[in-house]
TrEMBL record:
Keywords: Membrane, Repeat, Transmembrane, Transmembrane helix, Transport
Protein name (record): SLC13 family permease
GO cellular component, as recorded: membrane
Transmembrane regions: 68-88, 162-183, 195-218, 425-458, 470-489, 501-522, 558-576, 596-616
InterPro entries, A to Z: Cit_transptr-like_dom, DASS-Related_Transporters, RCK_C, RCK_C_sf
Amino acid sequence: MVAVTPSIAFVSLLILLALVAFATEPVPVDITALGVMVALLVVEPVTRQLVAVGLFSTPIVVFSDPTAQGLSGFANAATLTVLAMFVLSEGVQRTGIIQLLGAKISEITEDDETRQLGATIGVVAPISGFINNTAAVAILLPMVTDLAERGGTSPSKLLLPLSYASMFGGMLTLIGTSTNILASELSADLLGRPFGMFEFTALGVVVSVVGVVYLMTVGRRITPERIKPQVDLTEEFEMGNYLTEVVVREDSPLVGQRVGPALSETEFDVDLLQLIRGDRVFLEPLGPKEIQAGDVFALRTDRDTLVELLDVEGLDLLPVRVDEAELEVADEGQNLVEVVVAPGASLVGESLTSVRFRQRYDATVLALRRGGELIRRRMDNIRLRVGDTLLVQATEGSIERLDANRDFIVAQRVERRDFRRSRIFVAIGIVVAVVGLAALNVMPIVVSALAGGLAMVLTGCLKPGEVYDAVQWDVIFLLAGVIPLGIAMQETGAAALVAEFVVASAASLPLVAVLGLFYVVTALLTNIISNNASVVLMIPVAVEAARDPAVGADPFSFIMAVTFAASTAFMTPVGYQTNLFVYGPGGYRFTDYLRVGAPLQLVFAIVTTLGIMVFFPPV
């Protein structure tokens, strides 16, 4: 029986606090992870000082080599491999091959929802096996929304399957998800047995087939149609009562003033979308323009503000219906798009005002959708979250800049001029070489991935400056922060204590049920906190439980159960980044993930557990 020591008590309390912080996100999860790392590093020197002054009897020691082990997350092979995979994914993306594939699929599927759903799942699942599945969804989301629009299908019917299929597709190879790579490194540390490139491909194929069948049958029927199939974005965001046009009267006090101080920078809750002067239409920046009698402004505002504005500013209401067609006459280009706030975006936690969105991007936000909630007034001071979808009015050039900015995902296909299509086969060849070298054990995956990232730059698939933009640094710092926590669990005996408790609770259960229990517990944990954090917490416990004489199983089988469970968080939008990607564009409610994801999670628990018994027998 493992005794509860001060070190175990400290690590256990730290885990509890971390779980609460991961679930509630008072600060971003990567900051929480770094806080965990710092706490593990400072606890020993601080308690030694307390012992010296007589306030503590013994110091709390969590590491045998504090500096090396506490900072090991930054030098860990998993962290470096994930970093390199982001670079490889970006190299493939910059060639535009996914966009070309999307155009071909659109031609084939037309307006048949079954074909659209099949194509969405059939493309994202295999792609997610070879480029990071989060990147795969970010790349394919515009393709799928465009597919839905062209075919008259609700995007809600396609986007949740897109996220789910990317998750089980990521279980086809080692490099499909950062979770796989981290689990492989933990397995190497604890058992001396890392995962091979195609170690669990057979099981991944079985799980993927089951997932595809579910999404094409039961899942298709119960996935809600939150956004009606329609082309007009102003109707989709229910903007009818918030868009209007006004004309400046000759006696208006606005005549001769500049647009900025007269209208844009007032206390009125109003956004200027465009200025129509004779036969010309102007978009942002409108602030410096001088107002003339007869100018027509398209506005986003509410009825109460409009009445006040008409009375005070000498404006007349025009009896016209402002819709997407009306707003897209400028420059004869695409002016109205949905833009999704991406994970790791610099404006997460900021507001449109604090980031000076209008001035920085020469774009106007007409509405904000957060899941099923639509916000069309007083948006300027709302703190933005990952997955928020903004209805944006901008020039074609501004939309291209937004599309090139990693803070955003433009949810419609944008014809980018900077794709390096001459490098398509070079980029694919590099990825194939990375996979092949690791699969044949010519070199470790971390070495081949780093070499592949360098090759992307040397061959011109990526420019040197783009390498840093390619990396999701929040994921890197999350890994660097939580890896030492797993080490601390092992060093202090906290993992062994939890394992004893689990084994005692499941003493009367057969081995397959104990294996399934670890899958279920990990899956539930992953739906609340980060998938990488759940792997770090659960793998040490799973290994200790398997080694317990009462279980006497192969720990590798238990590692597989935790790994698969951590990569399939279907039941909440916060459980996995890809779920957040589609939350706004699909107009989903929180309960939709439970409705569609809970049955799939249950099916996977059974299929994966039985599959592990076949492919990775625990005895």
